[in-house]
Design brief:
This protein is of the alpha/beta class and 237 residues long. Helix content is 35%, strand content 19%. The relative contact order is 0.19.
């Protein structure tokens, strides 16, 4: 029986593929139960479409992308795209906590405090995820680690944000995804409504991508003064 579970908490469809699709594909391939939690359906993200039409399109795109990455299950918090910052934190905490309790992950991934790009939805997801992690981690069967997506060459492909110097200044997981770049490309290409940055031949596009994705270890506190670099999110867990 598999004993490793990874929960990834993000804001919109496509957040899973462009920055960290290689990591999700790698761990799914290794037998980890990978769960994706999305706060919204990205219904504000297609010009000229109603919210309902856009939500249906983006949900279908997300499901196809998750199939390419090997995600075991996708969970929807059903908040409104672009309005997370105006949602009561208590409601966000409650919905996210309920899902994380069902999943019982060993490791949680989410955005860093700046949301990579500063997007208010991303920043809110970071705040909710960190608060719920801090609550659950105090319990005997709570998650063991919380990682923030660190700006890197890989995240530039999704957000266009150059990595700050401090991105490698703390405990970092440097995840080799070189064997899973084609899955990442195929997943990203499913998000056709978002004009994926690599829309050509899968093998040729994969050869252009960074072979590592970076994550900053945010919790537990006692681990922050440990090894400065990890090669596995579950290392010595």
């Amino acid at each position: 029986m598999n004993e490793k579970t990874l929960a990834v908490v993000l804001a919109h469809p496509d957040d899973e593929s462009f920055p960290i699709g290689g990591t999700l594909a790698r761990y799914a391939h290794e037998g980890v139960d990978v769960h994706l939690i999305v706060a919204t359906l990205g219904e504000a993200g297609i010009s000229g479409k109603s919210a309902a039409e856009a939500a249906a399109i983006r949900r279908a795109e997300l499901q196809r992308a998750c199939n390419e990455l090997g995600v075991k299950q996708t969970h929807y918090l059903e908040f409104h795209d672009g309005r997370l910052a105006h949602t009561q934190d208590s409601l966000g905490h409650a919905r996210l906590e309920a899902v994380l309790r069902r999943i019982a992950p060993d490791v949680v991934i989410t955005f860093g405090p700046d949301g990579i790009s500063g997007h208010p939805d991303h920043v809110t997801v970071n705040r909710w995820s960190t608060a719920v992690y801090d609550k659950l981690s105090k319990e005997a069967d709570g998650p063991g680690r919380l990682y923030y997506i660190a700006p890197s060459e890989a995240t530039q492909q999704g957000c266009g944000i150059a990595p700050p110097a401090e991105a490698v200044g703390g405990p970092v997981a440097f995840i080799d995804v070189g064997d899973h770049l084609e899955e990442k490309v195929r997943a990203a290409q499913q998000h056709a409504s978002q004009n994926p940055p690599f829309d050509g031949d899968v093998k040729k596009e994969a050869n252009k991508l960074a072979c590592h994705e970076l994550f900053r270890l945010a919790r537990p506190w006692q681990a922050l003064n440990g090894p400065r670099m990890q090669e596995d999110l579950f290392e010595a867990l």
